[in-house]
TrEMBL record:
InterPro entries: SwrD-like (IPR009384). It comes from the Bacteria. It holds the Pfam family FlbD. This is Flagellar protein (FlbD). Keywords: Cell projection, Cilium, Flagellum.
Length: 64
């Protein structure tokens, strides 16, 4: 799970494994595998960075 910020400043958490694509138009649009779309304050680069960090963290978790 990664923490992101809606345009109105509200923080929320999304399952990074459900991210299908991320676009900059200029706001950052995230499309999930369910075809839901989210618009966030973070840049594309920041969302990718957080998703990679999440992926690395779950692979390093003991017992998995």
């Amino acid at each position: 799970m990664i923490k992101l910020t809606r345009l109105n400043g509200e923080e929320f958490v999304v399952n990074a494994e459900l991210i299908q694509s991320i676009e900059s138009r200029p706001d950052t649009f995230i499309t999930l595998t369910s075809d839901d779309r989210l618009i966030v304050r973070e840049s594309v680069e920041e969302v990718v960075k957080r998703a990679i960090a999440y992926s690395r963290a779950i692979r390093l978790a003991p017992g998995l």
